[in-house]
What does this fold into?
Amino acid sequence: MLERRVVVVVYAGALALDITGPIEVLDTANRLLAPSATPYRIDFVSADAPLVRMSSGVIVEASPLEAGQGPIDTLLVPGGWSLRDALRDRALVSWIGRAATRSRRVASVCGGSFLLAEAGLLDGRRATTHWAYSEEMACRYPDVTVDAEPIFVWDGPFVTSAGVSTGIDMALALVEADHGAALALETARFLVLFLKRHGGQSQFSTVLDAQLADHPPIRAAQEWILKNLHTRLSVAEIARRANMSLRNFARVFRREVGMTPGQYVERTRIARARELLETTELTIGQIAHRCGFAAPETFFRSFGRTLGLTPKEYRHRFQLLSPSGLIERHHETDRSPV
It folds into this structure.
């Protein structure tokens, strides 16, 4: 194989980032590939060729759909604000269905999964889409098992991602499948991505969960939690720090943050543990202790329930790499305050 042919389906009103995010990942991977490795070749095809305007006004130059004939390594289908119009374009939907039969794998970003489902490609399979449209997708395509939780889902040759930026995570997973974890992590690092996220991570990510509330007492409680993760952190103590009754604190906290205080504490502990697994050489036991887990076994259960990986598996996949491919770690010692 001289190259991996990636055919991107473009249509008027598509989201530019649904297209540019994944292809920038693939292009960056090309630039970091070893000379003997197989690079990606990216082709754009569209029924609206040659110049196709995205929803943001960005113009993409594409070839007619007929140029997408022949074997395809990866067929990529984006979403967009004009998705309803695209779904009514029977010629486009039929072309996607036929092209999928010539493709080693088929990937979609955000609402692109609707186009795959409309073509009948996802019947009997598990798929995801943007959380805001998951119920509509489930109702419209009852033969598809729609999972609104993960950022991307891989079922056989079909990979569907949740929305916009998750197309980048999906593309990194494709690079990992083709060229190994080291290149995928090096690509993520080169693009200055915060983290190469595992597909099982929730769309409602810990980054979003960590946003501080606007309500001053709850915000103060969150800030105190972040500074005291190594301690027991009972809800009663957190409520006292917020100068609120336990019952009122629990009610207001859930309203402001979208989860119970206990759930927030657990997710914050996991977020800190991920950071330490990615950037330090601390042992699993030391990390569990520093993040406030009573015992390593408790840490293992909580981590696996949240991310679907063991701490060791997570460290193996996501420990940060430099552009040279060498692991960089902060040689941090266990300076736990307790």
Remarks:
- The first strand starts at residue 4 and ends at 9.
- DSSP finds 15 helices and eleven strands in the chain.
- The first helix runs from residue 16 to 32.
